[in-house]
Design goal:
This is 3'(2'),5'-bisphosphate nucleotidase. InterPro entries: DPNP (IPR006239), Inositol_monoP_metal-BS (IPR020583), Inositol_monoP_superfamily (IPR051090), Inositol_monophosphatase-like (IPR000760), Inositol_monophosphatase_CS (IPR020550). By secondary structure, the protein is α+β, with helices and mostly antiparallel strands. It folds into 2 domains: 184 residues, 2-Layer Sandwich (Fructose-1,6-Bisphosphatase, Chain A, domain 1); 123 residues, D-Maltodextrin-Binding Protein, domain 2 (3-Layer(aba) Sandwich). It is 37% helix and 18% strand. Strand 4 and strand 5 form a beta hairpin. The longest helix is centred in the N-terminal third of the chain and has 25 residues. It is globular. Bound molecules: adenosine-2'-5'-diphosphate (A2P) and magnesium ion (3 copies). One magnesium ion binds next to strand 2.
Length: 322
């Protein structure tokens, strides 16, 4: 199989980071932090998760850079001493090791167009879900020449802990988040052909996807099922294993650009499960333009049976403002 060692390392790194996130969610997300809308638990987990994944990638593939969401700037400040100690403790590293590992994720592809192979990491995708004690994901993708070739998506709270993997051309698999190795069960998208019988998933957060527009789009498609609202790239996991036939991510404000780490892993998992992923205008998702999906707006993922119809209705229902 292609990318065997990459997959092995990526799976074990995402499993280790997921464990760290589960511990932080169990120990630091409390009734009091929920009440105060205190974001500090996710801050610890974000940094510790990036340290764990980047530490593993750096050791195994020192020459392949990582485009991670987080950087250590805030963590290096004097006032951050307490946070830094917590991050190091949860990552199982010294403070210096944790800072160095986090900064291994600081690559910007736009700064060096000669580099065409890099990882992209969202150490916690769905921070709002994490803070609510609900769904979040640890998402790691490998990009080559602007295309995602491998993805590992850890969903610690989905069905008791799920890990989805995909290698381009090799299908998508479902593994346990706690297990070992890379063997898993092949997954596939829903086989619903009639779009009116489909259900769709979308963000819990109305600020991340236009939920008013999705109501109209669903009604125009004849869909009567209630939207399945779930945080993070767990939405891609839902489409990949047939729990939803459509994922709509509809732009909410001009100027927002989707980030590569918010889509790389999820997108390849859906595609390898037999689905289709484009932006809201039906354009292919272009990962070759740096840290953002500069040429794309929003996302539509489907089981591939009625993708063009969904794109048509979405394009008619929303106005994409730059
Ligand atoms: N205005 C926005 N439109 C779309 N996505 C957004 C917006 N603001 C933040 N996000 C991103 O949405 C992702 C999670 O959304 P959801 O769980 O609803 O799918 C996060 O990665 C978050 O990025 P960030 O991590 O920078 O906050
Ligand atoms: Mg994210
Ligand atoms: Mg994140
Ligand atoms: Mg974030």
């Amino acid at each position: 199989m292609k990318y065997e060692s990459e997959l092995q390392i990526a799976v074990s790194a995402v499993r280790a980071a997921s464990k760290v996130c589960q511990q932080v969610q169990a120990n630091l997300v409390t009734a009091a932090t929920l009440e105060k809308k205190d974001k500090s638990p996710v801050t610890v987990a974000d940094f510790a998760s990036q340290a764990v994944v980047c530490g593993a990638l750096k050791a195994a593939f020192p020459g392949v850079p990582v485009v991670g969401e987080e950087d250590s700037k805030e963590l290096r400040e004097d006032e951050a001493a307490e946070l830094r100690a917590k991050v190091a403790q949860h990552a199982g590293m010294s403070e210096a090791e944790a800072l160095e590992a986090i900064d291994h994720g600081g690559f910007d592809p736009a700064s060096d167009p000669g580099v065409t192979t890099y990882w992209t990491l969202d150490p916690i995708d769905g921070t709002k879900g994490f803070l609510r004690g609900e769904q979040y994901a640890v998402a790691l993708g490998l990009i080559e020449n602007g295309k995602v070739v491998l993805g590992v998506l850890g969903c610690p709270n989905l069905d008791g802990g799920l890990l989805m993997t995909a290698v381009r051309g090799e299908g998508a698999k479902k593994l346990s988040i706690d297990g070992e190795g890379t063997d898993g069960e092949t997954v596939g998208v829903s086989d619903i052909e009639d779009v009116s019988q489909a259900n769709f998933c979308e963000s819990v957060e109305s600020g991340h996807s236009d939920q008013d527009a999705s109501v109209k789009i669903a009604s125009e498609l004849g869909i009567t099922a209630e939207p399945y609202r779930i945080d993070s790239q767990c939405k891609y996991a839902a489409v990949a294993r047939g729990n939803a036939a459509i994922y709509l991510r509809l732009p909410t404000r001009p100027g927002y650009r989707e980030k590569i780490w918010d889509h790389a892993a999820g997108m390849i998992v859906v595609e390898e499960a037999g689905g289709t992923v484009t932006d809201v205008l039906g354009k292919p998702v272009d990962f070759s333009l740096g840290r953002t999906l500069e040429n794309n707006r929003g996302i539509i993922a489907t089981n591939g049976k009625f993708h063009e119809r969904v794109v048509e209705v979405v394009s008619g229902a929303i106005t994409v403002v730059d």
